[in-house]
Design goal:
The chain is of the alpha/beta class. It is about 30% helix and about 20% strand. The protein has a single domain (about 5-265), classed as Rossmann fold. It binds S-adenosylmethionine.
Length: about 270
């Protein structure tokens, strides 16, 4: 196992070598080709319609941007944010007509002169964020998205992360786990319900939640064994739906009483 620098929120310090290793791994990986890409595609393809602008958080070397391009979104209409300079350099050279910022997503605002953003994607980046950081990020995304715009989120499944870390699913502690591209990666240890509650608390409406299985066309591949036993990914589609008559700058919507109570009881309220 190669030693690497942990990538944590506030300490997003991949070495240039790690960034290059990630770029070599990302699009060829079994998990992307056989689990994440088919799931993300099925979530966003039917909704992409007349998407104006798209924003990709934690864009890395651009594999999500590649999918957005395949689905017909113009390169000029794509905005990407990542805190890693090496990856920003790589993605800029791949998509020279798209728009990139080297920025930490824990520090909004993201796009100062914001164009119309109809779709935001955050694939394999929100797991680094603490609850406070996640809420800041989701609130900013809700502000930037056009009414009825979509947010697609992909995460390593929290149950798998806890298992890989040898920790309790409910411990809600920072995990450091081996990264498949070498070295280590981290996760803030939130649970499935934490993510869903945060998304709703940021005034998004949930549209779909998926725990995708391996695509049938990949079942014969040797990589399948490592992903066969249980849920490995959590994919979420949410929509920024404005309440009638309230416009975009609306008051926070309260959760129903029962949910509010359990939310207040929750150790990591968001
Ligand atoms: C596992 S990679 C995923 C990249 C890309 N979304 C993909 O699916 O290929 C995580 C990416 O998130 C970026 N990242 C991590 N924490 C970040 C933060 N706080 N702000 C901006 N980017 C961050 C990293 O630099 C890295 O490119």
């Amino acid at each position: 196992m190669l030693e690497g620098t942990a990538l944590t929120s506030g300490d997003d310090t991949w070495t240039p070598d790690e960034a290059v290793r990630y770029e070599e791994f990302a699009e060829k990986s079994f998990s992307w080709r056989c689990i994440e890409e088919p799931s993300l595609r099925s979530l966003i393809e039917p909704r992409i319609g007349d998407t104006g602008g798209a924003l990709d958080l934690g864009c890395g070397n651009g594999r999500i941007i590649g999918l957005l391009r395949k689905l017909g979104i113009a390169e000029e209409a794509i905005f990407g944010i990542d805190s890693d300079q090496t990856l920003i350099r790589i993605v800029t050279s791949r998509y020279p007509n798209a728009n990139f910022a080297c920025q930490n997503i824990t520090q909004p605002p993201y796009l100062v002169a914001a164009p119309r953003i109809d779709l935001a994607t955050a694939h394999f980046v929100l797991q680094y964020l603490t609850v406070d950081e996640l809420m800041k990020c989701l609130t900013e995304l809700h502000r930037l998205l056009a009414p009825r715009g979509y947010l697609a989120i992909g995460l390593p499944h929290p149950a798998r992360v806890a298992q890989q870390a040898g920790a309790s699913y409910f411990a809600r502690v920072h995990h450091r786990i081996p990264a498949p591209w070498g070295g280590f990666t981290t996760s803030s240890g939130l649970t499935v319900s934490d993510y869903l509650n945060c998304i709703m608390q940021a005034r998004f409406t949930l549209r779909r939640v998926e725990e995708p299985e391996i695509s049938t066309r990949c079942l014969g591949e040797s990589g399948a064994n490592a992903y066969a036993a249980g849920p490995t990914r959590l994919m979420i589609l949410a929509q920024a739906v404005s309440l009638p008559g309230r416009g975009r700058a609306k008051k926070p919507r309260l959760l129903p009483n029962r949910a509010r109570r359990s939310h207040a009881d929750c150790a990591i309220c968001c």
